[in-house]
## 1
Amino acid sequence: MNEMAKTMLKIAVWYGVHGLKIIPIYGMRKRSFDGKGVLVCGCGNKECKPPTSGKHPMIKDWPNNATCDPVIIKNWFEKVNDINIGIVTGVASNLFVVDIDNKNDGHTTLEIMEEEHGKFPETVEVLTGNGKHFFFKHPGFPVKGVTGVYKGIDIRGEGNYVVAPRSLHFSGNRYEFKGDQAMGQILIAHAPEWLLKVLKAKNGTQTTTARSGNSNKGKTEGWMPLSIPDGKRNDTLNRVAGSMRRPGMEWDEILGGLKVVNANRCKPPLSGAELEKLAKNMCRYSK
Ligand SMILES: [Zn+2]
């Protein structure tokens, strides 16, 4: 075992000791023969590419084989040098995760959410390769995994997992705890009430597949922000107009819908003339 592998084993055992169910995930390793040190997935499959690489389980039937048992964890982790750690989310580990994906503008959505509801409470926060994970205590009702609960924001709950510090992301960055958070002094906070309401409303609706990283990103419901700031208003209203034009609505019907969304969500609202222009422009596209 190299030094990093020893560190990963130590961390994985530590998670287990603290009641987090963990699974071994294929790590990223440097492909050395081309001299460039390109990172490839440890599974060895040439077809394994982002967003899957460095994120899929090394064991079969992971939901049933995830464990807190240090002996089993040691057995998994001492055999491989390039290995990542998965933490199972949901009631299994008594937590769920809000996954902010900056590639899908999650950071912008997070800003909008914070403006609307205030910042998330201090909690375990992990910097991932392209965003953040916020950890929250399990609320006691099942938390369904939802891809795109808002644009660029996923929920990881029952039957999901997240890749955990200090795993190596395909970007070359390691997953790290934010700032001065350190092993042994991490407190997972209760989720804010408004978020629990959203999760409850999502129960029984679309669920994610059982892995972190999902091909349905951006195609799902829930992209409509509660508050649309200056700079995002035209784009968002255009998307709304498009969703009305496709099934065949005419410009005056579209305008009616835009007026309501504009009044309820745009901060500050666009003018009536701007809305009219948006609706008319949209109708240049065929139904
Ligand atoms: Zn792979």
Note: Confidence is low (pLDDT under 50) at residues 206-221.
## 2
Amino acid sequence: MNIQNSGLKGYYKSMNTKDKKWKCPKCGREFSRQGQDHYCVKPQTIDEYIALQDEKVRPRLNRIRTILRNAIPDAEERISWSMPTYWKGRNIIHFAAFKKHIGLYPGDEAVAAFSDQLKGFVVSKGTIRLPYTQELPEALIGKIARWCYSKYSK
Ligand SMILES: [Zn+2]
């Protein structure tokens, strides 16, 4: 281990206390979990966001983007909460790439409304996990996006 790595390890350790959040030393974002999986560079557009992700997952991210665009074409694409976001007067739906899945963020109400159709997926707090190993539920993603749009757009 070189000096730089051991220094970083010490930094992580010092931040890993019960009442402190973990702050990424590279981008300064704070997370409740130490070593939280995230991306450090701050992309300004969805194109930039996707370009920063692992080459292997880019086609799938582009696919989700296409599904969302087609489902809610009047929503504006932007980055919000550091995630690709569809916006119409307010945030409608987000997605984000992780190591093993794409997170789709339609909110608590949408996850509850579609709970029957989401049985094969891990869901929590308004989030749906779409693992890279599983086929994308394209029709369902479109339906959820339209539901969110009709509920939240202003
Ligand atoms: Zn970071």
Note: The beta strands are 22-23, 30-31, 76-80, 83-87, 91-97, 101-105, 123-124, 127-131.
## 3
Amino acid sequence: MNCQVCKNPINTTGFYQELKERLEKAGICHSCDIWLAHWKQRNDDNVLRISGNHYIIVKDGTGLELTVRRNGKLQTVSAWHQGLIPEVFRNALPDNAQYARRIGVA
Ligand SMILES: [Zn+2]
């Protein structure tokens, strides 16, 4: 069976039963399942998409420190990086911020 979203084969080998059944029923691969979940949160304030990369801002300081420009404002945040958004999701998950130089760094 191939994924309905990205057309790659769906490989559920080694997945726990509940996940395996859910993916097979939906006809999507694990990667697309994850990116669909990000798509559902696409308008959340804690989501940053920069140059095709996906980040979720965390409040506990455990993430990567990033200085970004969003809606014309600079902000420094702590964010987890989910990786590069797959090509098939790029149009659905457009950039909503830009990288900015760290304040104080030439
Ligand atoms: Zn897929």
Note: Helices lie at 17-26, 30-40.
